[in-house]
């Protein structure tokens, strides 16, 4: 039995729940319904990966360029400091090299090692912190040597000659 109300028949009076009146068979899926994610998600994922790869390459290139610029700047700074040190060293040595007494006390056969030590080697060590001083004669033979503020054997210069060869006769 069904109850009738002012608007027409309503749900059955029994205790069973109302049922849907759609007795049509289930609708089959549309032909491209599951292709949409693969048509959109695949290209979006590929584009995202491409953008990330390009961003990584750009950052790697920028890092290489920054490194190269930093190295070039450090080389310029080092060259400047070496040039400044070389100019300063030349000035320091000039203070004793142009002195007539230095020439007179370092002539072949008349080398005064005591005078040279006191007025050249020890003085350059005390005033400028020179660790080693070598005084060469006109033939580039060692006439005097100082190491660590103390007189040294002039023959010790032969161990340093290869490193200083570029400065001899320069």
How would you describe the overall organization of this protein?
The chain is of the alpha+beta class and 170 residues long. The chain contains four helices and five strands. It has helices at 35-97, 100-104, 113-128, 157-164; strands at residues 2-5, 8-12, 132-136, 142-147, 150-152. It has a three-stranded antiparallel sheet with strand order 3-4-5, covered by helices on one side. Strands 1-2 form a two-stranded antiparallel ribbon. The termini are far apart.
Bulk shape? rod-shaped
Distance between the termini: 126 Å
- Overall pLDDT, averaged? 84
Helicity range: 40-55%
- Low-pLDDT runs: none
Order of helices and strands: EEHHHEEEH
- Which strand-content bin applies to the residues? 5-15%
Q: Keywords for this structure?
A:
170 residues, two-stranded antiparallel sheet, alpha+beta, rod-shaped, 14% strand, three-stranded antiparallel beta sheet
Quick take:
This protein is of the alpha+beta class and 170 residues long. Helix content is 54%, strand content 14%. The strands form 2 sheets. Strands 3-4-5 form a 3-stranded antiparallel sheet, covered by helices on one side. Strands 1-2 form a two-stranded antiparallel sheet.
